[in-house]
Amino acid sequence: xxxxxxxxxxxxxxxxxxxxxxxxxxxxxxxxxxxxxxxxxxxxxxxxxxxxxxxxxxxxxxxxxxxxxxxxxxxxxxxxxxxxxxxxxxxxxxxxxxxxxxxxxxxxxxxxxxxxxxxxxxxxxxxxxxxxxxxxxxxxxxxxxxxxxxxxxxxxxxxxxxxxxxxxxxxxxxxxxxxxxxxxxxxxxxxxxxxxxxxxxxxxxxxxxxxxxxxxxxxxxxxxxxxxxxxxxxxxxxxxxxxxxxxxxxxxxxxxxxxxxxxxxxxxxxxxxxxxxxxxxxxxxxxxxxxxxxxxxxxxxxxxxxxxxxxxxxxxxxxxxxxxxxxxxxxxxxxxxxxxxxxxxxxxxxxxxxxxxxxxxxxxxxxxxxxxxxxxxxxxxxxxxxxxxxxxxxxxxxxxxxxxxxxxxxxxxxxxxxxxxxxxxxxxxxxxxxxxxxxxxxxxxxxxxxxxxxxxxxxxxxxxxxxxxxxxxxxxxxxxxxxxxxxxxxxxxxxxxxxxxxxxxxxxxxxxxxxxxxxxxxxxxxxxxxxxxxxxxxxxxxxxxxxxxxxxxxxxxxxxxxxxxxxxxxxxx
Length: 573
What we know:
With 573 residues, this protein is α/β, with parallel strands linked by helices. It folds into three domains: 3-19 and 156-251, 3-Layer(bba) Sandwich (Glucose Oxidase, domain 1), CATH 3.50.30; 37-143, Orthogonal Bundle (Enzyme I, Chain A, domain 2); 256-571, TIM Barrel. It contains 22 helices and 16 strands. It has helices at 37-65, 68-81, 84-97, 101-117, 122-143, 166-171, 190-198, 209-212, 234-255, 282-287, 311-324, 360-366, 368-381, 397-416, 434-438, 440-443, 454-462, 480-495, 512-519, 531-539, 543-554, 559-571, and strands at residues 3-6, 8-11, 14-21, 157-161, 177-182, 202-204, 218-222, 227-230, 271-276, 293-297, 329-333, 386-391, 426-431, 449-452, 499-502, 523-527. An eight-stranded mixed beta sheet has the order 1-8-7-3-4-5-6-2. Strands 9-10-11-12-13-14-15-16 form an eight-stranded parallel barrel, surrounded by four helices. The longest helix is centred in the N-terminal third of the chain and has 29 residues, at 37-65. The radius of gyration is 26 Å and the shape is globular. The two termini are 42 Å apart.
């Protein structure tokens, strides 16, 4: 019987495939006495051998696709699985105490983990994490439970999860993962943003995907209307194949605009650029007619690994993006870690309100070695393209001045050492904090540009956590309060002869685009897959008419009033 779940359409497109559940397995068990000791030892040894085979395959795939540094993690795990100091005591416990292998494994492993974690030596603490990971894998095999590993998928699937962290999405095998659906999240959650970056359909916030979908179920993810169909009938599959074909045809129409400029009906040009997370995303920017990169999220360079990326690794990544864009502008955001983005090798304090806490520029100004390394890599890469540097989460002019001062210090050192650095690097800030939007006129005298980060600006202005579905009604991009802040920033930039862009999800929103055009936004940065659709929309709009619409919207009272006014104005186009 077909079941349908409603969620939030987070990334456009339609996919039909088997479900692959990416959720933590239940590894609970009871301690029990056993009668056949040899059989139990043999069962344990078989689980160890199966784990080794699995880890060897994961190591080889990681080495091939992600590089030797990622593969080294699994090499360490294999060493643990061959260590007689760990395996011997487990087998001895099974024999001497006549307990089941699960109990012996857990008791011995817990003892080693506790011992290593209590040591001051950082290397030994890391070994504790290796033992925990490895023994979890062996335990899963003893219990006959599968540990999901999305990077090892070898057939076309749709991933089903409670949520996907940035590191989860970084592991997804793009060749086989056709789409995903989650229980929680919204259009601005990182899983949704990554889906758009990977150009795969996604429906998030279904509330019950993991409860309703089993491994191997055939499911349809409709990223256009926010629906998930479980075990659809042949008739429904046929209907969705038609819908998918119609969407592909629409995309083919938009594709005709790839080499066009973005110009309104009355001749006003704006720039449509892309948000990216890795050098691999450059192809999507080019294929979708992007006029540059408006946000390069550098934190993905730091994720899914066990140590900081070196200056050389970062330089190569930034250089690859700059060269790939062939002189088009590339706005790189310096490291934005914190909030819901954590690094296992960077000990951040546990915070009550991490989104309002020690993150982004606040972290970088304190951890200056890390910050200076990134800035040096960026400055060296600047010789290979059109680089602009943007500092995130700026709340005060003092923070901007300090960050820019560090940048200029590193530039001076490089120039003195004879390293080629561009003399034409614009330095700007993300406007995410209401205090900065309110003070935009003062910031505009010192920055080279603004990029409005609406994902955070909206949640901070409305005091509403964008990850919390219970208050999602307060995440209101068209609220006049938000529009007034945007206008304040754009006007302040223009008064000083500077440009203002937007790199939040609002920039690619078809309701927001007419308003932003009317408010005078110069640059719209969005997921690459949204660019051609946005270009098509802007070509049908008159900037002069949208100025009138925006002026009215600023004086409306509610988000819904603005929404209806835009729909009425645009439907006539």
